[in-house]
Automatic annotation (TrEMBL):
Name used for this protein in its record: ABC transporter ATP-binding protein
PROSITE patterns: ABC_TRANSPORTER_1, ABC_TRANSPORTER_2
Transmembrane segments: none
UniProt keyword annotation of Metal-binding present: no
Key words of the record: ATP-binding, Nucleotide-binding, Transport
């Protein structure tokens, strides 16, 4: 079942496109979106949340485009999980969660806190009185309050230390809510996403079953990301920091960094089917070892 679908979506700010012609289905089993800083992950998440209108292409919610969909139903069904820093520092935890609920449903607030592994008495505290991991759990509780079918998680654990990250991932893995998970960290998608998409400079360069992408990357960029992160916790050197990738202006956008580029790469490769549910945009997809 597909919950949300991007169909040939181009997204940008002002007149500048930053995500180019992306098609992507959010299906069961978790979908991962991987790429370094500036690759367009959050921009795509905003479009899936209906917060950014495509310059071209469509976002489909069931059999309707977001323009025509019942937005009340959509806003309940698709919930963002932002970084915990987005919690209002002046508001008590309980009120932050209750905001999303019918008036006065304090019993439900306690239930939600328990569901995310927190002591319900934390409802009376303010964000600064909680640890980073606790705050991230609160953000998840708030997203779960309205009973969504899909969570859109943008780097939900990247600000946390490794052991806390692992516990939050356990929590997410145990929820029966579908998810689109944005991350730098391949260990995270491996665990939580059956399917993954690798984004480079606003383009999907490789998609497919996560375990196959990791076991045998078909795009040199996927391989670079994989080889750079052997374990949970670290962002790859390629992805670390806020420096943005400079794509080649013509031809394959990855060619300035690609270790196996050939003259043919001056022509941009199309994203094509590679069998086994995979797609890859590389002239030398068979040669990546
Ligand atoms: N509000 C905005 N106005 C103008 N340009 C923006 C805005 N938000 C993002 N961009 C630009 O769009 C491109 C994609 O940014 P985006 O935030 O989607 O990347 P990202 O993959 O989420 O990166 P990160 O890993 O750093 O969060 C970048 O070039 C960025 O500078
Ligand atoms: S098309 Fe060429 S430059 Fe681009 S990733 Fe493949 S081999 Fe590298
Ligand atoms: Mg982002």
């Amino acid at each position: 079942m597909t919950m949300l679908r991007a169909e040939r979506v181009t997204l940008g700010y002002g007149k500048r496109p930053v995500v180019h012609d992306v098609s992507l289905d959010i299906t069961e089993g978790g979908v991962g979106l991987i790429g370094e800083s500036g690759s367009g992950k959050t921009t795509l998440a905003r479009a899936f949340l209906g917060l950014l209108t495509p310059m071209s292409g469509n976002i489909w919610y069931g059999d309707k485009t977001l323009k025509k969909a019942d937005l009340r139903a959509f806003r309940k069904d698709v919930q963002p999980v932002f970084q915990a820093e987005a919690l209002d520092p002046r508001m008590r935890i309980g009120s932050s969660i209750a905001e999303a609920l019918p008036r006065g449903d304090r019993a439900r607030v306690r239930e939600l806190l328990e569901q995310v592994g927190l002591d319900p008495d934390l409802a009376a505290r303010r964000p600064h009185q909680l640890s980073g991991g606790q705050r991230q759990r609160v953000v998840i509780a708030r997203a779960l309050a309205v009973g969504p079918g899909l969570l859109i998680l943008d780097e939900p654990t990247s600000a946390l230390d490794v052991t806390v990250q692992a516990k939050i991932l356990d929590l997410l893995a145990g929820l029966d809510t579908e998810r689109l998970l944005i991350t730098h960290n391949l260990a995270v998608v491996e665990r939580l996403c059956r399917t993954s998409h690798v984004l480079f400079a606003g383009r999907i360069v490789e998609s497919g079953p996560t375990k196959d992408l990791l076991a045998k990357p078909a795009h040199p960029y996927t391989k670079a990301l994989r080889d750079a992160v052997p374990k949970l916790g670290g962002a790859p050197p390629e992805a670390r920091g806020r420096t943005e990738a400079v794509p080649a202006a013509t031809g394959c956008p990855y060619r300035l960094r690609c270790p196996i580029a050939v003259p043919e790469c001056e022509q941009a490769p199309a994203l094509r089917d590679a069998g086994g549910g995979r797609q890859v945009a590389c002239h030398r997809a068979g040669d990546v070892t």
